[in-house]
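Recap from last week: sequence in, structure out.
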Amino acid sequence: MPSLDAIDRQLLAILQSDVSLSIEELAERVGLTKTPCWRRVQKLEKSGIIRRKVALLNAEILGLPVSVFAQVKTDQHTPEWAETFASHIAEQPEVVDCYRMAGDYDYLLRIVVSDIAAYDRFYKELIRHVGISDIVSNFAMEQIKSTTELPIPPPE
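Predicted structure tokens:
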């Protein structure tokens, strides 16, 4: 990891919370002038620590209140199958997270849909295009915590 000083860490914490702040506002919050603050943010972007700047949307208001966590198991462990699976998943806008896992299941998906019928359509499309040996679907009842903010590690 690149060397981060206290100001870099402050900038990252602030930007994770609200990326819409102007450079002037950021600089004021961390005690810098505008140009050095801008340079630091540029350095954080170029280093890859800041990957993207996005808007976080409200799924409920958009009519997507159902989150499904699907555990997928396959009996096909070839590079070709993995590529087919990854390509198919990348094309599905309902899949907001996909992880290859260690343990009993090979993949964990988080799928956001309007209702159970929409998930059923997603499921049928998945099994039509990608051979899987098992899938366990868990429907979220309540979201207790959801954040995109990472804990900023303390200096070493």
